[in-house]
Amino acid sequence: MRSFTLGNMAEGLFFTFGSSLRCSLWQAGSSDRLLCAEGLAEAEKCGYHFSLRDKENLARWFVQLKDLNQDGKLAADLKKHKLDASIDLEIILPDGFPMEPPFARVLYPQLRGGYVFERGGICFEPLTPKGWVPSMTLPALAIAIKGILDYGEVRVAGVGNKATRTVPHYTEEGARKDHTAISASHRGGESSTYGSIKHYSS
């Protein structure tokens, strides 16, 4: 925790929270909204599902994107490989959230093309410091990522382990390396396209 000060001000108590505490408070409120009956019903309607694999860690979310475009190439690939019509993601919140962007990566299946890098990193401007908007909610982010995967040129490249729904080389470390290259390119000014990183080699 970076800072926590409590001062007596003329009109009452004034709190200054460090970013870690702000993030903790946000996470507690957000998890309640995402996991309550109303939040789950909204998620079902919009085609996404949030869950916590570790209920003690509110910074790490498992996200499943459902209800994909049935006429799209991604849905066709999933069907061809006899996979569920869904994409698994992980979203991790940094200490500085919501002022800093979350980190998101693909978990399953193995995807290629469009906005997905070799190790599961996602090329999407709102996931970079340049493009992130603190008012964006996690459900809105999930829907936006679903859109770029579902309607882009993203294809299934492999099925990994169907039983555990994992891809061996899709690691957090690898995806963060992808993200570093993505963020560097966005800082370079080509923020709205795959642009200069389309030839990036992992």
Automatic annotation (TrEMBL):
Domain of life: Eukaryota
Compositionally skewed regions (Polar residues) per UniProt: 190-202
Region (Disordered): 172-202
Gene3D superfamilies recorded: Ubiquitin Conjugating Enzyme
UniProt protein name: UBC core domain-containing protein
Organism (species): Effrenium voratum
